[in-house]
Structure formats: C-alpha cells, structure tokens
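User: Could you go from structure to sequence for me? I need the amino acid at each position, not a summary. Structure tokens:
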C-alpha cells in the first residue's frame, strides 16, 4: 500500500493527514504544527490537550509547536515567538511506497516586522515512515542584516503516567534548572524520573534519548539543535493553564529539540537547520 497525503479538516483547522503503511500524522497549517503521530501498529505518541484552543487566538497546547525566533521568555517577544499562531503554506508534498514528506513554509510580513524587524523564511519538513517521524526546521536569513534567534521543536509526548516513565540519555550533561531559579547543575542520574515540576535546559547534548513507558519505548535523536529541554508543569502550574485539564500533566512530558542556552547568529542570506527524529520501538 502506497503512502498518501490528504488535505483534511482537524478541529476546524486546515491540515494535512499523512498515512504510511498504517502510520498516521496530522499537521496543522496553523502554526505549522504536528498535532498527532501514531506509528504503525502503535498508539498515539503526541499529547494534545483536551482543552486546547484551535481558533488561532492562542497557540495550540500540544503536538509539536514550532518556537521561533525566541524560546520561552528569553527576550521581549511573545513567549516562544510568534509563528505558533500564524498560518503556514504547503510548498511541497511527496510520497513513495514507504514514506511521505510534506514541507511547510512561513516568511516575514508587515505584522512580524513590526515586532521583530528581520526578513526570514522558515521551512518545516515532516517525513513519515512506518515507525519513524522526522522533523527538520530550517531558518533562512533573507535580509541584508544579521539576526540572532533561539527556538525549539516543543514536543509534547503522550505518556501513560508521567511518574512511571523513565528518560535515559542525559547522564553527565549540564543543565540550567529554570524551575529552581536558573541554577546550573550536572545530571547525575542514568534515568530521570518525574515526580515534581521539571523545567530544564540540557546543554550541548550529544547522545540520543530513550523514553521508557511501560511496554513501549521511544528513541529521540537530534541534529543541529544543541540543547534538549525537559518540561512538565506538575500540579500547581498545570492548574493555572486555562487550555489544559488539571490532571493533564500526568499524561505528558515535553522533550524538546532546542536552541535555548545560546542564540544562533545568522548572517545575511545564510541558512541554519536542525532535526529531531522520533522512532517508536
């Protein structure tokens, strides 16, 4: 059975549905955001809040939001930048017997230049195989002046119970503990277990991650992105989020491919790219 890409409506939004040998991905044009990924023969791996808002007034809570040109509140722009609530264009679609690829693009306009005076083009390439999802983000400086940026693929993983999963691969790496006032620490555990609020930026990560969730596991690998962000709001902060149920923190863990510790300096007419690969095991 060959792969297919169809234009669909998802929660009232224009989207692409990519099907490959029983695997399925849904990508919203609003935000250029992957909202669902089910590998062949498996269960959903992305968390999407039951209370997410889909009208564009706020970013969609869940899936894989694209953060650009600012990560979190590390600057004067809206938190995580401004591309999460803007409509992207589909510029390429390709399928084969065992893969599907879609490329979404967004460029600067008068509205973006009013708050961030730079010319840019972003492309998100989504590639799907039976048990694999590749997301590649490219940033092009299309102007005549250099600019700097931070950002991330803010991946919300769906887990059965966050207190019972284990995250491996970060042993020995230094991290900035945002939840503890930006204290810098070194990871001493071979496995990270989540039993409280977690908000950490792991720097210069060079190994893949492994998420163990009972009988299923997920491999997470990045290229180009120097940092990995791990986030779970836990009970108090989750209750303060209007677009997330009070118990939602128990069903998610963010493992984000990121440029967060140090900004990328991008000269005129140059490109940068980063990739995150998820493999269901």
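Assistant: Here is the amino acid at each position, in order:
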């Amino acid at each position: 059975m060959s792969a297919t890409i169809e234009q669909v409506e998802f929660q009232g939004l224009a989207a692409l549905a990519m099907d490959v040998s029983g695997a399925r991905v849904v990508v919203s044009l609003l935000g250029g955001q992957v909202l669902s990924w089910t590998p062949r023969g498996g269960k959903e791996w992305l968390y999407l809040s039951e209370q997410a808002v889909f009208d564009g007034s706020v970013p969609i809570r869940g899936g894989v939001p694209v953060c650009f040109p600012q990560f979190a509140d590390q600057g004067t722009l809206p938190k995580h930048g401004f591309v999460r609530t803007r409509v992207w264009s589909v510029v390429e679609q390709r399928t084969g017997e065992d893969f599907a690829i879609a490329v979404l693009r967004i460029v600067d306009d008068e509205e973006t230049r009013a708050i961030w005076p730079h010319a840019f083009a972003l492309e998100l390439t989504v590639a799907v195989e039976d048990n694999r999802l590749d997301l590649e983000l490219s940033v092009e400086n299309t102007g005549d002046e250099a600019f700097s940026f931070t950002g991330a693929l803010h991946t919300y993983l769906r887990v059965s119970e966050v207190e019972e999963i284990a995250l491996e691969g970060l042993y020995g790496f230094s991290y900035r503990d945002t939840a503890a006032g930006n204290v810098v620490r070194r990871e001493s555990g071979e496995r990270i277990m989540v039993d409280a609020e977690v908000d950490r930026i792991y720097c210069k990560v060079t190994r893949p991650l492994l998420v163990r969730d009972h009988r299923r596991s997920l491999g997470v690998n990045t290229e180009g992105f120097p940092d990995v962000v791990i986030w779970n709001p836990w009970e108090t902060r989750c209750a303060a989020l209007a677009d997330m149920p009070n118990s939602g923190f128990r069903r998610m863990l963010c493992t984000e491919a990121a440029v967060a510790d140090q900004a990328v300096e991008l000269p005129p007419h140059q490109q940068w790219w980063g990739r995150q690969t998820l493999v269901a095991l």
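One structural detail worth keeping in mind: Residues 110-115 form the longest helix (6 residues).
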